[in-house]
Design goal:
heterodimer, A: Nuclear Transport Factor 2, Chain: A, six-stranded mixed β-sheet, about 20% helix, B: nine-stranded antiparallel β-sheet, binds FE2/S2 (inorganic) cluster, binds fe (ii) ion
Amino acid sequence: MDTMTHAPAITLDEAIAFVWLEADLLDHAEYDEWLSLWADGGLYIVPIEPGVTDFANVLNYAYDDHIMRQKRVARLRNGQSISASPVARTVRSQSRFRLLSGTADGCELRCAQIISEFRRGTLRTYTADVEFNLVRGPRGLRIARKVIRLLNSTEALRGIGYLL
Amino acid sequence: MDMQSASGPALDRLIKSDRARAQLYTDPTIFETEMHKVFENTWVWVAHASELPDPGDFKTAQVGRHPVIVVRDREGVVHVHVNRCRHRAATVCEQRKGKTASFVCPYHGWSYALDGSLRGVPHDKGYDGSLDKSQFPLRSLRVEEYAGLIFATFRTDIEPLHDFLAGARKWIDLFMKQGAGYPVTTLGEHRFRFAGNWKIQMENTTDAYHFPLVHKSFLTALDKQTEESMDVMSKGGFVEDLGNGHSVMVMLPDLIDLEANLDAPIPERFAELAAELAQTHTDLEVRRIVRAVGGSGFNVNLFPNIACSMAFFRVLQPVSVEETEIRHIAIGMLGGPEAANRARLRMHEFFQGPMGFGSPDDAEVWDRVQHGAHGADDVWVMLNRGEASEQVTAEGHIRGEVSAETGMRAAYRQWKRMMEA
Ligand code: FES
Ligand SMILES: [Fe+2]
């Protein structure tokens, strides 16, 4: 479906720059700009079972559409949640990027992500494979889907009061 | 009741009918004693029948600190075996769940049938014919089931499960109405841990008092109509002591019987689901399913390790004196409309689990209890809320108002009875 035949295909560099922007916005709690990075109907998903693809019909840790993302952001900001007061500080690094597919309109990017979280005197780490489906919109790239596959998703986790 | 019995003077200093010392949360010796006196001497929940629908299906679990395998044999009978090879103790299974024809120990290859009997011993000539396989089955527990809830116990001489559940059976039956006529099935689980004693969690599913405060961020994330419907302190709810440490906390009395009031208006948040279901179901079916999707208005707390809590199962697993694992098991309708089960899954994700809008806040306050419990040994943990206004029901159950600590008092009475035995 190459409707914008004159636009160049999304390159690995372009996709990486976009994903790093997203990561930086989350680590610095710039949530309004983060919310604007999403395509209409975009889904933020943290699955439990490795290898699932039919996310809608199974239990996940998070399965957020735009409304749920807004609620999550509100929860991080309104001070009503004791587990998010204060919100954990995070530093995430992403590497091992690979374009799984790509056209001028969209691409699938996979990468490794390690998040260090610090809150109430404790430093924790979460490691994940992250899969992005990115689409090109009139105002640049947007996220159609982000799937965070935690390495230890089937084990007992601690409360995660921030966005992975 | 012989609370004054001389058998537990040390315990009498630690716990009274309306208060307890924080050592109950912090003392490793008490924890060791509990793992034997409580968890090895009562019915402990291990599985829901839907987790093992077919012969060969199994899951691993724990009874106190004993690792166990829950497995359905070829005849359909459920067994619970200690997950320990009879040769030199290796576990014979490390998978969370699966399907198998037998359990083979990875160390030297002893193999066991699903019923636990020892079938194969490699190179058995080394035993010179002296090894009688019939004497080395996996150690099995006694297993009984009520309404799909499977329990196991090490004790062959305690009362049947049916009697143990006592006044809770009626509430379990009501809870299972959220299948809306379909069998109730598990739909996956959230597992998380907190740094605190297991009894802090045991108290919590019979604690309506914390709901408006700890779950404020969840409540404000709801639409106005749902938020109002969840105003649990003002709905005329109650807590009832059901015997043997069990209790029920009714937060939303309108949702005690999910098959009643089917002509009530469908809440706004379910309008879209109802419209979708209406394409394939009659009006009455739609009302019944939608009402069930919302879940029950109460928690049945079964001592010591499970609660049937509104729309899910809450299972607790003590890890150490200051560490507890919680499972929130999602449930739905087996063979029911996909849209209805999807709605259940999204509701579960919304509140439960490490990324829910509810559980992390619960975990945070439990963690704070554990931290605070290390301060001032001589200060009591108070469990007396609502005691003065308690009444006795026609069935002979003690009943307090919705935020009374009646359920905690019931659980601790059973705890003390078992610790003194
Ligand atoms: S420990 Fe199992 S076969 Fe030796
Ligand atoms: Fe809670």
